[in-house]
Amino acid sequence: MQEDGVTADQVVACCFRVPPLTARLIGRPAIEGMTPGYARLCLQYVGAVCLRCGTVGLDDFIAAALADPATLALARRLSVADNGHRDPNALAPQNVEIDLADGRTVTRVVNAVLGSPDRPLSAEAARAKFDVCWRSAPELSPGQGAALWDTISTFEALDDIRILPTLLGPQGAG
After folding, report:
1. Residue 33 CA, distance from chain mean position
2. N or C: which end of the chain has fewer CB within 10 A?
């Protein structure tokens, strides 16, 4: 989007060509009345949100966001197609083809999905994602989150993992 100046209002159509497993997992159609769980596994919806906002966050799965007519209209212009990859467990490569109103077609190949071992999140991005998720649970204190982050950041060096539930307080120990 940044490299080619692609904006949501320019998108005429978009096709995500993905391996068979990926197509089965996230190739469901965007529909009115989607639940958050359904929408999280709907590349049409998630792709439309990303095109409109530049990113996807937790607030994109609340009822008002899921019912947004502009997002749903864009989602219906996006499609998911099986690229015929022979490895039944492959998640990549993925090809994205975006047809724009000016007649251009922008194509990108994604050889490794973000967060995979071949394309891990940076430490800063992982911490930011953790913090956003932690803040979405108001019953948990920021201090608990910091302690949990510090512990899981050094998970490989822990002598005893039984400390993890205690970091979540009474709800984690049950």
Report:
1. 20
2. C
User: Average pLDDT for residues 93-119, to the nearest whole number?
Assistant: 95
Q: What are the pLDDT digits (tens) for 26-85?
A: 999 999 999 999 999 999 999 999 999 999 999 999 999 999 999 999 999 999 999 999
Shared-domain flag, residues 100 and 56: yes
- The two tokens of residue 95 are 């090809």
> Do 94 and 142 lie in a common domain?
no
CA distance 164 to 17: 40
> In the structure encoding, which two tokens stand for residue 101, read together?
């109103």
Using CB atoms within 10 A of its CB, is residue 49 exposed (0-12), middle (13-18) or buried (19+)? buried
Residue with tokens 């000016």: 102
pTM, rounded to two decimals: 0.84
- Chain segment 81-101, per-residue pLDDT in tens: 999 999 989 999 999 999 999
CATH number of the domain enclosing 88: 3.30.1330.120
Closest Cα to residue 155, out of 169, 167, 143, 170? 167
Q: Is 141 strand, coil or helix?
A: coil
Give 110's strand partners. 94
Range of the domain at 48: 8-110
Please give the order of strands across the beta sheet that includes 11-18.
78-82, 11-18, 94-100, 105-110
